Amino acid sequence: MFQADPQLSRALARLQPKAKLDLQQDQLRLVLVESPGQPDMQFPDIWLRDNCRCGECYLPQTLSRLPQLWNNLDTSVRVQQQSVDVEQQLLYIQWSDGHASQYPFAWLRERDFALAHRTRYLSDFYRPAPQHWSGLEFGHIRREFQYQELLASDEQLQQWLHQLAVYGVALVRQAPLEFDVLRRLCNRVGFMRRTTYGDEFSVRAQPGASNYAYLAAPLPLHTDMPYFEYKPGVTLLHTLEQSDSPGGVNLLTDAYHVADLMRERHPAQFRVLCQTPVDWADIGRDGDLEFHNIWRAPVINLDAEGRYVRINHSIPQRDSHFSVPLEQVRPWYEAMALFVRLANEQACSFKTTPGDVLTFNNLRLVHGRTGYDDTDHNVRHLVGAFLDWDIVYSRLRVLRNATR
């Protein structure tokens, strides 16, 4: 026979009218009457059982649940009795499987299933919601940071990472003309992403270059390394020397904005670029390392909810292999021609100077530059590096938690 837990009985005795519970159709609603204007909190009962905070179910030092419950999970478990202790700010539940749980109000508030709370968590704490921009709006969303301040101030570091997460681009100014600038900046976030081109890499005109970026010719808009399944998330480009010729001008486009335009005005072509896999490849050698990288993915990549997660585009690094049915080829070319035209129309342009570090979201922005004259006395030399978004978002959350 079911026997109520003594702790639950004491809590029932202290139940006050300042809070009330409503359990209907497996959903528990907690109303805090003493907090006017505070919305009701909503929780599925099976989720509460899965997230019990007692020592049998949860390990504090790892901040994670223990697996025992899931060795024989009873999905028919139901709330047997429930109460709140407003003084202690605790919710008590006695379960149909005989288990007893308690949950702090503060912990529950952070995990409320109400739509407004879930929306706020996903667009703020989980990952700041991106704001898309046109080329004409670049002057309004552009923001600059000082290199030394990013190294010294966590507040400035947080603002820089937030700018990257929301708008996808930020310019760091007055960095020393030293080769380890990007390493020091990346170490403030976490660590660099190594690729087949090493940790840092030099971007300058090279005779017999195996990569199109190492030519002085115009570099069309592209994303870096679409041939990687785990494509580097953030590109950092440190200008050490800048060509005195009229060329070498940076070009940037928010490809998420281009995708918005296609989704709204050209839905058929938008679907083609979302659904047609493309072969991206990079074949060559860097130092002693010989490589042949291939990844197949559409130009526009969506998640399960239809949001953009990645843009793939690089004319030189699109393989001649196109592993799709014949009837899909021409529609893809027509849709891609539209994408490239819109991306060029929406591009903004500016020219970095020595000491500038251009940082941008490589999953979202397409970038390029105009051609330039390259001679012994007119050199353009950049150092590049990458960060992964997992590392960036992790650091951003740590910084935000420290200021809460």
How large is the share of residues in beta strands? Answer: 25-35%
- Overall mean pLDDT: 90
CATH 2nd-level architecture of the largest domain: 4-Layer Sandwich
Number of DSSP-assigned strands: 22
Domains (count)? 2
**Spatial shape:** elongated
Question: Number of helical segments?
Answer: 13
Helical fraction equals 25-40%
Read across the widest sheet, the strand sequence of neighbours is 9-10-20-13-22-11
Query: Which consecutive residue ranges, at least 5 long each, have pLDDT under 50?
Result: 12-17
The separation of the N and C termini measures: 47 Å
Descriptors:
TauD/TfdA-like, alpha+beta, 2 domains, Double-stranded beta-helix, NE0471 N-terminal domain-like, four-stranded antiparallel sheet, 29% helix, six-stranded mixed sheet, 404 residues
In words, what does this structure look like?
Helix 8 crosses helix 13, helix 10 (255-265) packs across helix 11 and helix 11 (267-275) packs across helix 12. With 404 residues, the protein is of the alpha+beta class. The two termini are 47 Å apart. Residues 12-17 have low confidence and may be disordered. It folds into 2 domains: 6-125, 2-Layer Sandwich (NE0471 N-terminal domain-like); 129-402, 4-Layer Sandwich (Double-stranded beta-helix). Strands 9-10-20-13-22-11 form a 6-stranded mixed beta sheet. A 4-stranded antiparallel beta sheet has the order 12-21-14-19. 30% of the residues are buried. The radius of gyration is 27 Å and the shape is elongated. It is 29% helix and 27% strand.
